[in-house]
Amino acid sequence: MTEYRRNFVKGGSYFFTVVLADRRLSLLVDHVDALREAFRLIRTAHPFHLDAMVVLPEHLHCIWTLPPDDADYPGRWRRIKAAFSRSLPDRYPRSKSQILKNERGIWQRRYWEHTLRDEDDYRRHMDYIHYNPVKHGYVGCVADWPYSTFHRYVAAGIYASDWAGSGESWDQEFGEIQ
Asked: pTM, whole model, 2 decimals?
């Protein structure tokens, strides 16, 4: 097995993709309040700034900025996943390995992480996050997806309410394809 090395930058900004173990489920939107509560609990105990986020049925994307003296995003993800998993009924199938590791079988063990390099990288990942529901065909307009920080950025005047909202193909290259 290949050894995966993560990049740790104290006070860094990171793009994440986190996925359910069973991508046929829609647990993240079905239990979005439990997911919000898991984030709230962990952010209270282990602060970070949630710059952007989109929650889709079986995966989510987000950008976090950590405090200046901290690079422990793996610990935060472990706690968020555990808090969310504990909030759900214990009825999802688990492998022997998951049982041995006391895992609920909700999440994929790994997640995608990318350290954001500069303002352009940050902006492109921000756009990727907000466009993702259209990319996956859940809505025709970005503004129609309720589980996104896009609405917060519209209210702040950063995005126009009709940004990338025509439903036509958007020919940008960013995010996890880089």
From this structure: 0.88
